[in-house]
Amino acid sequence: MGLDNVLSGKGGVGKSSITTQLALSLSLAGRSVGILDIDLTGPSIPRLLGIEDAKIKQAPGGWLPVQVHLSQLLPQVVDAPQPNENTATPRNEGVDHSTLQANKTDSVDLPPQSVGALYAISLGLLLPSRSSAVVWRGPKKTAMVRQFLTDVLWPSLDYLLIDTPPGTSDEHISLAETLLQQTSTPIPHRSPQLAGAVIVTTPQAVAVSDVRKELSFCRKVGIGVLGVVENMSGYVCECCGKETNLFGKGGGEVMAREFDVKFLGAVPVDRQWGTLVEEGKRPRYGEDVTKDDGDDDDEDDDEIVMDDRETEVRRGDEAAGKELSAQLEVGLLVDKYRSCSLCTTFEKITSQVIGVVENGHANGT
Prior knowledge:
There is one protein chain. It contains 11 helices and 16 strands. It is α/β, with parallel strands linked by helices. A hairpin with a 2-residue loop joins strand 3 and strand 4 (62-64).
């Protein structure tokens, strides 16, 4: 089992989002994955995975993680919305983004696909509600982190991703000490490997400055670095196709070169990813998001006269469209994620992580 930490010395850079998508991508690659959320004061993993109503169960010997989905064969999805090539790779040079407005979402048939199981555990699953605050001092947080690392009865996993809070304080020190102890001591019938850390930053200089401290922390405690991900790196408007570097770009790549670690990739802002995790809707691209539902665009001024047959055909098409839309919204999070433009981005990031963990060694130790 490979143990991967997702770290950043800066808050608000999207560590939980990166952890969730890395887990989904690993699952799509056929690996069995667990997510351990040790962001005790701001647990986001349950909401991102859509498991807020689930509860952790106690079993003889420890806690049972929540099952997000089992290892299975995802069914074929007919006419699934899929981002066109330009939308899926917004930062490619030479792409004429001005043409994106006319490029509506492509419809493709997603083939059946085998996925690995996904499990998760978080303090958020022990709290009464989403708004419940955790007011703990350092020693109690340290004890909770150690309990999560030692008392959870994980099934057989290929990867355990650990989502951490920002900074380099109590939780991180306790995490590093416990992981290094567990992975250096032989355990019968079990060989967990501390694969390393994925460092997350955003492009702007103030974020990169803080994240550098996390890289220094990893070196001091002896945790290897798998690579750096630059999150929120560019945004392409779904309506007009104009690309905007909201927070600049390239800061993460420069930092990776400076510390001689792998740059795993840049992740753009995708509004459809937020819609997927917040509302459970399959991503759709190329639609005019600025148009209000009640805006008729003065259609009443241009009365369209249709014969009975044409009206009947249109009604039939509308009914079929609604039925197809309803079918597309049914399914697992991992299935709907296949229609997200970021799925392609993380497929490349995941392949690099798998290559380092299963075939090589992390840098920075």
